Amino acid sequence: MDWAKGILLSILASVIGGISKLAIRKSWLLQAKRNHNRRVGYEQASLSEESNLLHIAAENDIANEDLDARDGEEQMSDQQRKISKFLPYCLRYSGMFGMSVLNPICCVLAMNYASPSILAPFSGLTLVWVIIGSPLINNEIPSNRQMLACFLIISGEVVVAIFGDHTNDESVTVEEVQATYKKPAFILYFLGLTAYIVLMAYWINYSESFSLRRFAWGCSGGAITGAQNFLKDSLTIIKATDSQTKLSLTCYSFILLAAITGFAGLLFLTACMKRYDATYSAASFVGSFVVSASIMAAVHYNTFAQLYGIVNYILYPSGIIVLMIGVYLLVIESNESSEEIESTDQPRHPDNNNHDVLNLDSESVFGYTEMENEANEEIL
């Protein structure tokens, strides 16, 4: 029952991932709101406001204690401004720490007990935690479609856990691990993944379609992170290597590649959440991750060859399909919301090809630096 331990650790990793994604998303919303308030405040402020207040106070003989009370209120507002300034950064870096350190630790531990073919789909639970936590953190009330999506995701993962590949890497040698990288199917997988990432990069930088840019931002990180073979194989080599024998260069290469793919996926996810809502960002990331990791496991670890009986052959892929339907429902709903916002914002942004739309409370999180620069120029 080692695979059950791996699933429990994957569930814990999904909880950490969900909380981290919500924290990152909240940080961008808070920063965008703060920049918007600063911009509006500077436009409405008058250079003579302070002198006018002092003049009125003198004319009406305001008592010293009232002035002290006003000073206290100003100090409180200064404290609130400091909190509003640093809170987004604290949330963002806490979320990135959870995604880059705590979540991978749980994933690494889980990989010791189970195959990526059944662990990868459990990343879909991240979406469930995001939907459940959104009302508390981002003031988003889940719709009926989102609740149905959560049900489908959980149902699909239960089926995958029961009828998936329960084998592990016991008695696998270092030579056998290295030989798997020469398989034609596995080479084709990486060639296809590389071509896919190049296409996504092209759409991000040159496409005039909002939908294609959004799709590319959302799916790039998950596709890259789906190359879980580097993490799993490095752990396999470590376990297969005698304690008195030095680790091979191959193992260190796999560890480096695992770190690179994981960090690159995190960067894409963070950039996507900077531009779009948490539901879409998490759904597109998880969907592409599950597809990429499932294909990788099928060609690299021979997932279907490890299944027992016709029931497993039918229900294992069916569980993945049910899970992906739930993910698709979340993406569709988020697409509809963003299209409405995009059409609303078009009069304000004539050059719509150069603006990615941010859902919810802010107009341009992507352009927050420009907003800050304008505010600073007005201060000077």
Task: Explain this structure.
It is globular, with a radius of gyration of 25 Å. It has one domain (2-379). It is 78% helix and 0% strand. The N and C termini lie far apart (66 Å). With 380 residues, the chain is mostly helical. The protein is built from 14 helices and no strands. The chain has helices spanning 2-44, 49-59, 64-111, 116-119, 125-137, 144-163, 174-180, 184-206, 210-225, 229-240, 249-275, 278-300, 309-345, 368-379.
Indicate the structural class.
mainly alpha
Strand content range: under 5%
Overall number of strands = 0
The N- to C-terminal Cα distance equals 66 Å
- Give average pLDDT, whole number: 76
Low-confidence stretches: 343-380
Helix content: over 70%
Helix count? 14
Number of domains: 1
Radius of gyration: 25 Å
Compressed to H and E, one letter per element, the order equals HHHHHHHHHHHHHH
Main pleated-sheet profile: none
Q: Any idea what the shape is? A: globular
What is the topology?
Blueprint: H1 2-44, H2 49-59, H3 64-111, H4 116-119, H5 125-137, H6 144-163, H7 174-180, H8 184-206, H9 210-225, H10 229-240, H11 249-275, H12 278-300, H13 309-345, H14 368-379
Helix pairs in contact: 1-3, 1-5, 1-14, 3-11, 5-6, 5-12, 6-13, 8-9, 8-12, 9-11, 9-12, 10-11, 12-13
Concise overview:
This protein is an all-alpha fold and 380 residues long. It is built from 14 helices and no strands.
List keywords for this structure.
single chain; mainly alpha; globular; disordered C terminus; 0% strand; 380 residues
